[in-house]
Design a protein that fits this description.
The complex is a heterodimer of chains A (413) and B (94). By secondary structure, chain A is an alpha/beta fold. Chain A contains 14 helices and nine strands. A nine-stranded mixed sheet of chain A has the order 6-5-4-3-2-1-7-8-9. In chain A, helix 3 links the parallel strand 2 and strand 3. Chain A is globular, with a radius of gyration of 20 Å. Chain B is α+β, with helices and mostly antiparallel strands and 94 residues long. Chain B has a single domain, classed as Outer Surface Protein A, domain 3, CATH 3.90.930. In chain B, a hairpin with a 4-residue loop joins strand 3 and strand 4. The radius of gyration of chain B is 12 Å and the shape is globular. Classes of the chains: A alpha/beta (413), B alpha+beta (94). Chains A and B meet through loops of A and strand 2 of B. Chain B: InterPro entries: MftB. Chain B: Pfam families: MftB_chaperone (PF26520). Chain B: This is Putative mycofactocin binding protein MftB. Chain A: Keywords: 4Fe-4S, Iron, Iron-sulfur, Lyase, Metal-binding, S-adenosyl-L-methionine.
Chain lengths: 413, 94
């Protein structure tokens, strides 16, 4: 089992799981199986979004075979993992994608899969609408083509809307419209909601993580402090009708906790299986430091989940480090581990987007970013590739001064 | 939605329970809703509902102390509201 020796965590005494009490305290100690398992089916992708958190593009020649994928689904069924989030890459480019989808459903493993929508034809939409236990999540990172395509590539806005229209026409209800919140689309939240409503979809907002290629564009794309407040206020006003994947718990430090767990679930209730069978603590932590093991070489997924040293460590209550003296620590619990790691901040300190401003000095100072330990990005020309971004080197005088449509490409996840 | 727990109840056919150290996860494949049963004893009660004939009989057979019956009935009403448990025979009046 892999335990990266360089993981900068101090040894903590092993604490016993409490009996009774709040669920979130139970979750800190981990579960017998994950609640939220993401399975990146392939690193192959027909797009090259600038913020791809798995640095996808090219298929890994070592990716799980159809039989291995089915055996993994069998294991999910045995572990009573009721549903999985399938992503990539673009999962629909795997030739056996639809076969695996059917296999999962037949084996009582519900699937929600993320897609850019290019392959959601009317025929596929009809099939999806007729299949129980399958949900679809269409990625869109701008409520206008200008904002979206700069991040995700030319034509991707139209493709996403076409897919949603196909799903709606087929009678698919409450599928998801999934948005990564960036500096350029925070002002479009109402517009995203309107688009979702138009197609009978449910809006899902998630946080831009500095993972994968996202690390390269995070400085330019992550929401500005005043936009974080705008996002928080919007979520408080609309949160009961919008999904977030619990990804904004760092914003809870503004005041009222947002709906959801408000806990880092990495290795506790969340994990990621990548296309070659590596198991990581969370979808935003594809790096050797957070690799718990491999389903091929370490005894299968169940064994990795239950017995990896990394996960055992993550299931110890964290100390909070520099954050414990902060009045908001109980709300945000120090924020996102992956965001800290990939921006080169200490894991037991504040989140890089700490709303109390406690990371500002560290972010402005010398940082050593860990870089990526895998990269499947396209190396050649990609048909829909986003236009290379001209980086803004100064901070805009106000958010309104920075047009989202000016000079550049943006990264998408 | 029934306001009382009269009659016979059971775990809904679309719901699966997964035991966990704190109790269980309950997943409804029909609604894609995940719920949490926060005590192993409550899980035992829910599993005993089918065939017990009544909620009270399930509480007794699981060994729920009498002074905790009210709290368990509250929990069961909540599970009924969310469709995790269903009445065995639909009744004409609530």
């Amino acid at each position: 089992m892999t335990l990266a020796p360089e993981r900068p965590v101090t040894a903590r005494p092993v604490t016993a799981r409490p009996v009774g009490g709040k669920l979130v305290d139970q979750f800190e100690f981990g579960l017998d199986a994950p609640i939220c398992l993401t399975w990146e089916l392939t690193y192959a992708c027909n797009l090259a979004c600038v913020h791809c958190l798995s640095s996808s593009g090219r298929r890994d020649p070592d990716e799980l075979t159809t039989d291995e994928a089915k055996a993994l689904i069998d294991e999910f069924e045995r572990m009573q993992i009721f549903y999985v989030n399938i992503g990539g890459g673009e999962p629909t480019v795997r030739p056996d994608f639809w076969e695996l989808l059917d296999y999962a459903v037949e084996h009582h493993v519900g699937v929600k899969f993320s897609t850019n929508g290019f392959r959601i034809t009317p025929e596929r939409a009809a099939k999806l609408a007729a299949t129980d236990y399958v949900d679809v999540q269409i990625s869109l990172d701008g409520a206008t083509a200008e904002v979206n395509d700069h991040v995700r590539g030319a034509g991707t806005y139209d493709a996403a809307l076409r897919a949603m229209a196909n799903l709606q026409a087929a009678g698919m209800k409450d599928f998801k419209l999934s948005v990564v919140c960036t500096r350029h689309n925070i002002g479009q939240l109402d517009d995203f909601k309107a688009i979702a409503d138009t197609y009978g979809a449910q809006l899902r907002l998630t946080r831009l993580r500095p993972s994968g290629r996202g690390a390269d564009v995070w400085d330019e794309l992550h929401p500005l402090p005043e936009q974080q407040r705008e996002l928080y206020d919007w979520l408080v006003a609309n949160g009961d009708r919008v999904l977030t994947g619990d990804s904004f718990f760092h914003l809870s430090a503004y005041g009222d906790a947002l709906p959801g767990l408000n806990l880092c679930g990495a290795g506790r209730v969340v994990c990621l299986v990548d296309p070659v069978g590596d198991v990581y603590a969370c979808p935003f932590a594809i790096h050797d430091t957070f690799k718990a093991g491999n389903i091929r070489s370490d005894g299968g997924f169940d064994t990795v989940w239950k017995h990896s040293e990394l996960f055992a460590d993550l299931r110890n209550p964290q100390t909070g480090g520099a954050c414990v003296s902060c009045s908001a620590y109980d709300s945000c619990r120090g924020g996102c581990m992956a965001a800290k790691f990939f921006t080169g901040l200490p894991l037991d300190g504040p989140d890089p987007e700490c709303v109390k401003g406690n990371a500002e000095t560290a972010i402005a100072g010398e940082r050593t970013r860990p870089g990526s330990s895998q990269d499947h990005s396209h190396t050649g020309t990609v048909r829909n590739a986003p236009v290379p971004l001209t980086l803004l080197t100064r901070r805009p005088d106000s958010p309104c001064d920075e047009s989202p449509v000016t000079t550049g490409r943006r990264i998408g996840l | 939605m029934p306001a009382t727990l009269a009659g016979s109840w059971r775990l809904s056919s679309s719901v699966s329970l997964r035991p966990e150290p704190f109790g269980a996860l309950a997943y409804d494949f029909a609604t894609r809703q995940l719920s949490f049963l926060k005590s192993p004893l409550l899980v035992d009660v829910v599993r005993r509902l089918a065939g017990a004939g009544s909620v009270d009989a399930a509480l007794d057979s699981a060994g729920v102390p009498a002074e905790q019956h009210a709290a368990y009935l509250d929990a069961l009403r909540s599970l009924a509201r969310t469709g995790i448990i269903t009445a065995d025979h639909p009744r004409s009046s609530p």
